[in-house]
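Quarterly update from the structural biology core.
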Amino acid sequence: MLQTYNFTFVNLLAMAPQPGESGGGGLMGILPMILIFVAFYFLLIAPQRKKQKQHQKMINALEKGDNVKTIGGVFGTVTGVKVDRVIVKIAENVKVEVAKDAVSAKVD
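Predicted structure, tokenized:
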């Protein structure tokens, strides 16, 4: 067991930078992390923000007569719009108030 430990220690010493050589630190050490963050931003964060902005734009443009689908899967027609909710007619003589954020899509 002692020989394996010494062998590993010798390998670590051999891999250490020699005096006068660059250690490869600085920017090269954090460059992979920066590249991973940039990849995550363009693959995950940016598309999600774009989708969220489109959804908010759709919610702000809701008006009477629009056919909508809620997050719960209920389809109906908007009969009124309030500040923070919409009134949706889901059947004959059946109207419900739902939060604007609960409207998932406009249906044509």
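Helices lie at 2-15, 27-60.
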